[in-house]
């Protein structure tokens, strides 16, 4: 059975998944990994979702406030053994629901252009490509997306 739990960045299962995420991103990003990693610290993340299958943590995601109306989706990951089964979509929907419950009206996120499966997930979920924002503004390997809730 699959379940989703709302928690914080202190959750040990979330932290284990983030280790796997960082290993995955280090390979995917190559030389650019150090640049991206500096924006993925957990100290400012209070809203975390962990997806479990039979009590095994298989996926995660988080958000943090971007501005008074918007959250930034962060740390999305699904264990490779569980990909292609709707886990990422379920995690993303739960994050969006939670953000809406906290009176946010939109979500933004950044992913690498070298991660087309992630971009496809976000596009299928209603996100639109936007100009790169903030620290990603002039980064050619970044893709930024936004969704109105």
From TrEMBL:
The keyword Secreted does not apply. One of its GO terms (molecular function) is acyltransferase activity, transferring groups other than amino-acyl groups. Transmembrane segments: none annotated. CDD domains: NAT_SF. Keywords: Acyltransferase, Transferase. Residues 3-149 form the N-acetyltransferase domain. The keyword Acyltransferase applies. PANTHER family: AMINOALKYLPHOSPHONATE N-ACETYLTRANSFERASE-RELATED, AMINOALKYLPHOSPHONATE N-ACETYLTRANSFERASE-RELATED-RELATED. This is Acetyltransferase (GNAT) family protein. It comes from Flavobacterium aquicola.
């Amino acid at each position: 059975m699959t379940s989703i739990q709302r928690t914080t960045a202190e959750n040990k299962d979330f932290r284990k998944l983030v280790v796997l995420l960082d290993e995955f991103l280090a390979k995917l990003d190559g030389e650019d990994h150090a640049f991206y990693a500096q924006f993925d610290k957990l100290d400012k993340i209070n809203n975390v979702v962990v997806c479990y299958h039979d009590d095994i943590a298989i996926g995660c995601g988080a958000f943090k406030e971007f501005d008074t109306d918007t959250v930034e989706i962060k740390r999305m990951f699904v264990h490779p053994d569980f990909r292609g089964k709707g886990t990422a979509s379920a995690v993303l929907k739960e994050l969006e629901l939670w953000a809406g419950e906290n009176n946010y009206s939109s979500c933004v996120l950044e992913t690498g252009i070298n991660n087309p499966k992630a971009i496809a997930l976000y596009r299928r979920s209603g996100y639109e490509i936007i100009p790169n924002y903030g620290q990603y503004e002039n980064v050619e390997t970044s893709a930024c997306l936004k969704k109105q809730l």
